Amino acid sequence: MFRPLALSIGLRYTGAKRRNHFISFISSISIAGIALGVAALITVLSVMNGFEQELRSRILGMASHASISGYREPLQHWQRAATIASEHPEVVGVAPFVQNEIMLTKGNKVSGALVKGILPDLEPAVSTVGQHMRAGELSQLRAGEYAIVLGSELAFNLGARVGDQITMVTPQANFSPAGVLPRLRRFRVVGIFEIGMYEYDRGVALINLRDAQKLFKLGEGVTGVRLKLADMFQAPRIARELAGQLGGNLQVEDWTRQHANFFRAVQTEKRVMFVILTLIVAVAAFNIVSTLVMVVTDKRADIAILRTLGATPGTILRVFMVQGALIGLLGTALGVTGGVALALNVETIVPAIENTFGVHFMPPDIYYISELPSQLDWPDVWHIGGVAFLLSFLATLYPAWRASRTQPAEALRYE
Questions:
Q1: Are 64 and 227 spatial neighbours (Cβ–Cβ below 8 Å)?
Q2: What is the helix (H) or strand (E) element at residue 171, kind and residue range?
């Protein structure tokens, strides 16, 4: 089978056993270094993708994909906004809510919290809080009974259990002959939820929407309407479309704006981690430089003979570029294979290591996420593989150029 001269010689040099075993050792180290760097980069980014997905699902299990609210005032006639939103083909759930900051007291314990008024029959359409109940059920939040569901950390801080009575202090005040008095209301704890995010478990309480409207004197108004979308990543576009349809003095926000700083920080951390781990790949790739420089020195006589037989400097250049590129390609292929295998089995490998050595990397009493999640993103894999091979290829240019500049007369003078 016909093969170009540069490719044939480059493959022969790569596969041949060298007289200088040190050069072979350095080549093996270069391949291993590239493979380890690529595998580490794929695994770490997959774990970070898993953490991001896990955090996003927990946040959006309590928050909403998008929301419609009045501009600096309660949303009146929320049914109209809910009807328009539900007619959008990509909106799969709609539910009204009332939201306000309050104080909760039980005995001598006091804690601030964010109380949300919900309709128990509609809430499962927009959130997963009903799936994370440690005690009781959302259906027990019946109108007029002034029942309340607490986050697990909030309940622990207050020392409250299901069946206990707690007092809610609202920002509004009552005016009486005795002066301005805070508004108080007794609630009975009927449930405790645990989302797995400290922000929500420590600072959120749920009551019935009708009770919240009475408590905050909203009449038939609500704070807003929460929406669940078929594709959360299309939230900005859908929010713009709904804003155009609703018109009036209404505000439509999506989760990418409400939690922008958090997810921007996660993305920044991923980029920084990519750059740091890419440096490992770069160091390994540039070991190819020293390998090829030694190969060029070792093959000076062969290069001179090839030149006297008519090989051009370009041919010599391509010979050593092929050799360096093959080293980079082999290291990248091994790294991609190992990285993909690790990323797909992190959730099995880590527990095995923990059981073997009797350690726990993420104790459940400290971390809410006690297992390392992993989500392999194939575009990341191709990106990492491409960057690793490109760095390897760039590392071949200088040694190959040095080889092409070899003068036959000087190289054969002492042979």
A1: yes
A2: strand 165-176
Read off φ and ψ for residue 409, nearest 5 degrees.
-65, -45
Alpha-carbon gap, residue 93 to 103, rounded angstroms: 30
| 3-state SS assignment for residue 137 | coil
Q: Which residue's structure tokens are 């292929």?
A: 333
Report pLDDT for 183: 77
Cα–Cα distance between 58 and 40 in angstroms, integer?
27
Neighbours of 58 (CB within 10 A): 19
Query: For position 207, what pLDDT does the model report?
Result: 93
Instruction: Please report the DSSP string for 269-309 in residue order.
Output: HHHHHHHHHHHHHHHHHTHHHHHHHHHHHHTHHHHHHHHHT
Give the residue extent of every domain in the chain. Answer: 5-57+263-412, 65-258
Summarised one tens digit per residue, pLDDT across range 266-315 is 778 888 888 888 888 888 777 778 777 777 777 777 777 777 777 777 77
- The single-letter DSSP state of residue 321 is H
CA pair distance 323, 329, nearest whole angstrom: 10
Q: Would you say 219 and 212 are in contact if contact means Cβ atoms under 8 Å apart? A: no
383: left (phi over 0), alpha (psi -120 to 50) or beta: alpha
Candidates 25, 2, 27, 5; CA nearest to 14 is 27
> What is the rounded average pLDDT of the residues 355-382?
75
- Cα(7)–Cα(12) distance, rounded to whole angstroms? 9
Rounded to whole angstroms, the Cα distance separating 288 from 311 reads 24
Cα separation, 391 vs 380, whole angstroms: 16
Distance linking the first and last C-alpha atoms of the chain: 34
pLDDT tens column, 10-65: 556 555 555 556 666 777 788 888 898 899 889 888 888 888 887 777 777 777 88
What does the alpha-carbon distance between residue 6 and residue 101 come to, in Å, rounded to a whole number? 74
User: Are residues 181 and 174 in contact, defined by beta-carbon separation less than 8 angstroms?
Assistant: yes
